[in-house]
Design brief:
mainly beta, single chain, Jelly Rolls, globular, 4 helices
């Protein structure tokens, strides 16, 4: 949400582009609809029956499972032997809670997902599969390390406490035709691992089917850019959704708005193509918000913007372009 604090962009135009965040009347989670983590799916698919219906503006809580479906939450299930057997047997990584039917959402609309709060579990895990970054010569076997999450910190070691920065790694809506695994991504969003998809942000998603069919999961207590690694965990996420009727013809990929930045997401292989996509999306967004020419927006983004990877472990890859809202200027 752009709050117009600088006064440089007309608030009326911003409201036409995206809805301003509304104050909450009731944030007592005991009175909210709660969608529990046993309602999981491994795919974003319009054919999957919704597990819940929510009204526009309704505040609701979604419980998420960790990226391995809770399979490695005890020490006996973190050994290389167990991990290799688990992989041989096969399992659906990154299960997501949902789908959630958003009343009033229709194909061609835009879904604004307000992320109001995200709670960390008390237990997380870190680890790696050596093949992900071609590190087999360093690590002959997979590893998983359980870690406690207490008082807003990941207890990495006795002498290392890391402040949490919770992230929703996987979130999206149902594609129009395909069934896409929740570990993948596309225009519907998915496993983008973008750090700005977090409490206090608004995620804008294109709607392809009635009800949007929102799903989310794969939450992290903290994560590196590019997802070198992360602390995977269960989570509870408080959300509110609004439907923007219609969609900008310039919006081809998901967008995120934080308190101080615009964030556009590109998804492609190779990684540099995802970066180019995110830049094109940002130039379009700045132009439609302000009337600034793509020429001026490009030069300005070159001074104050940034490219950062989201998920760079396996293709497709995600990149985001970040632009500070304080530099938006009205040009109409």
């Amino acid at each position: 949400m752009f709050d117009g604090a600088t006064g440089d962009v007309a608030s009326a135009h911003i409201e036409r582009a995206y809805p301003m965040q509304k104050p909450l009347c009731d944030t007592d989670s005991s009175r909210m609809q709660r969608i529990t983590r046993d309602k999981l799916t491994p795919v974003f698919d319009r054919r999957t029956p919704p597990v819940a219906h929510v009204a526009q503006g309704e505040v609701f809580v979604v419980e998420t499972e960790d990226s391995r479906g809770g399979r490695t939450r005890i020490p006996e299930h973190t050994t290389p032997e167990y991990l290799l057997a688990m992989r041989r047997q096969g399992y659906h990584g990154n299960p997501v809670t949902g789908p959630i039917f958003i009343e009033g959402a229709q194909s061609g609309d835009t879904l604004a997902v307000y992320i109001l709060d995200q709670k960390c579990d008390t237990l997380g895990y870190m680890g790696y599969w050596p093949f992900l970054f071609h590190l087999e010569d360093y690590f002959p076997q997979p590893a998983t390390v359980l870690t406690e999450i207490q008082d807003g910190h990941v207890l990495f070691a006795d002498d290392v406490r890391i402040p949490v920065r919770p992230v929703i790694g996987t979130i999206g809506v149902a594609p129009a035709v395909e069934a896409i695994l929740s570990g993948s991504m596309g225009r519907h969003c998915g496993n983008v691992d973008v750090q700005e998809i977090a409490a206090g942000s608004t995620l804008y998603l294109p709607v392809f089917v009635e009800g949007a069919l929102l799903c989310l999961g794969d939450c992290h207590a903290i994560q590196s850019d590019g997802e070198i690694g992360s602390v995977e965990m269960r989570s509870e996420v408080t959300l509110r959704c609004e439907v923007i009727h219609g969609r900008s013809p310039n919006m081809l990929w998901p967008r995120v708005e934080t308190a101080d930045s615009l964030v556009t997401i590109g998804i492609a292989t190779p990684l540099e193509e995802a970066a180019r996509q995110s830049l094109r999306e940002m130039l379009n967004w700045i132009e439609e918000l302000t009337g600034m020419s793509k020429h001026e927006a490009y030069l300005l983004a070159g001074c104050v913007g940034a490219w950062r990877p989201g998920q760079a472990q396996v293709p497709n890859y995600s990149m985001r372009c970040i632009f500070p809202k304080q530099y938006l200027r009205e040009r109409r």
